[in-house]
Amino acid sequence: MADEKDIAEGQPAGGKKKLIIIIAAVVLLLLAAAAAAVLLLDSEKEQAAVDETAAEEAIADEQGEPLYQALAPAFVVNLPPGGSVKMLQIAIEVMTRTPTVIETLDANDPMIRHHLLNLLEGQQADVLLTAEGKENLQLAIHELLAEKLVELKEPGEIKGVFFTQFVMQ
Question: How far apart are CA 148 and CA 107, in angstroms?
Fold first, then answer.
């Protein structure tokens, strides 16, 4: 009977030990989960800080000093027959805030000039005599240059296209 008494007394003590071990394991798991959550929140805060810095740099690029690039020499094209004007001479300058855009335009000048000449040769003289026609031509040149910059994988963009000379004869 003594053995049965020892066994009976040992079971509750063993049950308490198991309960303490289970509670300790749960507490450790909770602490580990809390630590993981803190680490994840810290990494999210760091990523947010990196994203904010990148956004500030992008804004700084957009607000940087304007850079102008003349597409020299001036373009001289014959306009389609039937209009009141036969020839167009136009000097174009582009404005950007990204120096690499200027470098890309310089490096690809023959290709850029080719596409601009094709665009200019297709213009109707009577349309170009109006202010709206000139504005539409500016917009078409801007879109063409933007498209070419995308094709050349240039991350910058052209902010404006300006005519510094516009002669029709």
Answer: 12
CB 135 within 8 A of CB 63: no
**Owning domain of residue 36:** 1-63
Q: What is the helix, strand, coil percentage profile of the chain, to 5?
A: 65, 15, 20
Tell me the C-alpha distance between 138 and 117, whole Å.
14
Q: Which of 25, 43, 63 lies at the terminal end of a domain, its last residue? A: 63
CB 89 within 8 A of CB 76: yes
Parallel, antiparallel, or unpaired: how do β-strands 87-96 and 158-168 relate?
Answer: antiparallel
- The answer to whether 58 touches 155, Cβ cutoff 8 Å, is no
> Which CATH number do you get for residue 156?
3.30.479.30
Give the predicted TM-score (pTM) of the model: 0.62
Both tokens assigned to 97: 């805030």
For residue range 123-154, list pLDDT tens digits in order. Answer: 999 999 999 999 999 999 999 999 999 999 98
User: HSE (CB half, 13 Å, CA atoms) of 107?
Assistant: 10
Asked whether residue 37 falls in the same domain as residue 72, the answer is: no
